[in-house]
Design goal:
By secondary structure, the chain is α/β, with parallel strands linked by helices. It has one domain: Rossmann fold (3-Layer(aba) Sandwich), CATH 3.40.50. It has 8 helices and 5 strands. A 5-stranded parallel sheet has the order 3-2-1-4-5, sandwiched between helices. It binds magnesium ion.
Length: about 220
């Protein structure tokens, strides 16, 4: 998560920089940063939760539909991102005032107390009930495996087939890592019926029958 986060900050600077040029050319001033942060807080405390629940409900319905027509011997798997998918990192976002701090992020992950996104946990539980393998695929570095496993147990998601984390020596994007892992799982005979995440980079490149994008306008991970 950390290296991609660094790149995220760089990307945000570039995006904001190019947007500002556009706005200046148009003779308008961009929205004030504090106004935007307030809008994001209002969104998080209202529509965000409802929209997340709606996407999760679609995921539950899809798993039930797909499991009902599984072929004999078919190995079905559902893939879930962790941060702002299975659980919320909103407390961290607020602690850094919607910014980013690598040291604080490390300490936050070690706390292992991210609260569950209950509608998404319902999708995880549905997969387990239907005997669809639950695979967690995260951009978190393997250095945080123990804390991540602890957090999974704390939110009652401690039973799963695999927890795939970015190797300590990996330097590509999180999106490329996740795509590589889904491609590998497919090659190994898994039918990935669902892939759920809060970033487009969780889903880009395919290798899933259905992709479910949860809302997250709070940050960007390439
Ligand atoms: Mg995420």
């Amino acid at each position: 998560m950390l290296l991609p986060m660094k790149r995220m900050v760089l990307l945000m600077v570039l995006v904001i920089g190019s947007s500002r040029l556009g706005a200046q050319e148009a003779g308008t001033e961009p929205k004030n940063l504090e106004v935007v942060k307030n809008e994001l807080r209002v969104y998080h405390n209202g529509p965000y939760v409802r929209q997340m629940a709606a996407v999760a409900a679609q995921g539950v319905a899809w798993l039930e539909e797909r499991a009902a027509r599984a072929r004999p011997g078919e190995k079905l798997a559902a893939i879930f991102d962790l941060d702002d998918t299975v659980w919320s990192c909103w407390a961290f976002d607020q602690a850094v005032d919607m910014g980013f701090d690598e040291g604080l992020m490390e300490r936050y992950m070690l706390l292992a107390n991210s609260p569950v996104n209950a509608p998404v946990r319902e999708v995880v539980r549905t997969a387990r009930r239907l005997r669809i393998a639950v695979i967690f695929l995260t951009g978190r570095n393997t250095r945080f495996r123990a804390a991540t496993e602890k957090n999974l147990r704390a939110v009652d998601c401690g039973e799963y087939t695999a927890l795939l984390m970015q190797p300590a020596d990996y330097h590509g994007t999180t999106g490329a890592f996740k795509l590589r892992e889904r491609e590998r799982l497919s090659r190994e005979g898994w039918a990935i019926v669902l892939n759920m995440g809060d970033q487009n980079s969780d889903l880009a490149g395919g290798y899933a029958e259905r992709a479910f994008k949860l809302p997250n306008p709070f940050y960007l991970i390439p």
